[in-house]
Amino acid sequence: MSVSYRDDAPLGADDPTPAPDRPAASAARVPLRVIEPDGSARGGIIVLHESREFADELLRLMASLSSEGWIVVAPNLFHRGDVAEGEGVFGPDLFDDFDASFDWLVERGVFPDCTGVLGFDSAGTAAFQVATDRPIGAAVSVAAPGIIEPITVRAVALIEAAPRLRAPWLGLYSTDDPATPADQVEQLRDAAAAAAVATLVVSYPGLRHRPDRPGFDDDDDADVDTLIDAQTRIFDWFDAHLR
Length: 243
Fold this sequence. Notes:
Layout: E1 2-10, H1 24-28, E2 29-37, E3 43-48, H2 56-67, E4 70-75, H3 92-107, E5 115-120, H4 122-133, E6 138-142, H5 158-161, E7 169-174, H6 182-192, E8 199-204, H7 221-241
Parallel strand pairs: 3-4, 3-5, 5-6, 6-7, 7-8
Antiparallel strand pairs: 1-2, 2-4
């Protein structure tokens, strides 16, 4: 049984003074969606997401992770109010929000090497960047774009950053996703292999590798098998590396 609630975490003291169009209270604290296990936690997972709303599928995934013993924390990356949905949050803002979530977990007894990060789409790219710059235990990116060219001026191309990965990283992709062409995914696989940590890139046919999105055809055995495999890999990656 999991417990779901909302909280917030203070940004670091070095956070710049809010711009005039940013509400001061919003800029000073990061709103969090939290799902905790009922009992002792074995670690924490920070979920980065690119929407202001939580799809039911994403909430179910977060609850499932929590049922495995993880404190799941999802910061609102759009709390500053000046980022268009779908553009993602990168640069200092991303790391400020991540660090606030990270510190929130540390205050609850979670060790850095027992903290993971999970992201989807552009937030998967954000999770990848976090894994190159922060001392965490593991990272998972699902359908992360920006492989060859950065998706924003504040991001870095994944193949450029891949050799600098500091945390074990799992990337889940589709061979049919135009945002992440299969040949680029292959280049990313090769680049990630140069990292000093464990990496794994998995490509699936179709688009059913997204446990954060509604099912396409629950009667299609291939769809169901793909979804189960993708979700199992996410769980197993955190199980293996968050110790």
